[in-house]
Amino acid sequence: VIKSNPWGTGIHSPYVYHLVAKVIFGKKSAFREDFSCCRQTGFGVAERIGWLFSLIDDFQPDTLILAGEENRFDPSRCDLLNRFRFRQIYSDQLNWLGNEKEFVIFDGLNCTLFDIPGYAVPAIWVLWDLHELEQSLLFTKLRNSQKVSLTIEVNRMGIVIFNRNFRKQDYQVRRWFLF
Q: How far apart are CA 18 and CA 25, in angstroms?
């Protein structure tokens, strides 16, 4: 695991450097401050929602998928989320993943670990809260999978990128220079 920080120190991939330094911590998306679609607030939630919206805005997926029983988002109340084809899936529908340029948000998904799909096109998965045991176990499985190109752990959130053009790399981004 390569440890880094918001300024990109320790990142040797131009794509990951852009994603961390410019999109997550730097880019100010027009939707970054729109929390009207969030059903939950609390410590660090607003910051992670801003990062999430910046990622969605930068990636421009064909489909936005909310996976899980505990959904913190109401896409009908958010302009950014309404720009994309949207669907919600539950633990028994995970085999539907892997068919298109997807942005999948895993939130409160209570299921056993499943087979990881192989994507022919780029896709991003975001595991919302790595302090939850199920999401932490899934993130570890994804980090160890050869089907996953990049994993980035930042502030309790796991970002998983499927892209055949990248070689396997795993990053852990800390907010400050405390490694």
A: 10
Structure tokens at 122: 């780029």
Separation of alpha carbons 176 and 98, rounded Å: 35
Task: Give the C-alpha separation, 89 to 68, whole Å.
Answer: 7
Q: Name which of 25, 30, 27, 34 is nearest 7 in CA terms.
A: 25
What is the separation of C-alpha 29 from the centre of its chain, rounded to a whole number of angstroms?
16
Residue 34 in tokens: 């729109």
pLDDT in tens, 138-158: 899 999 999 999 999 988 889
- Give dist(CA 177, CA 171) in Å, integer: 15
Q: What is the pLDDT of residues 92-109, one digit of tens each?
A: 777 778 778 898 888 766
Q: What length does the chain have? A: 179
Longest dimension (CA), the chain: 41
pTM, full prediction: 0.81
Task: Kindly give the pairing relationship between strand 123-127 and strand 102-106.
Answer: parallel
Beta bridge partners of 57: none
Contact call for residues 89 and 67 (beta carbons, < 8 A): yes
Distances in whole angstroms, Cα of residue 132 to Cα of each of 10, 68, 106: 27, 13, 11
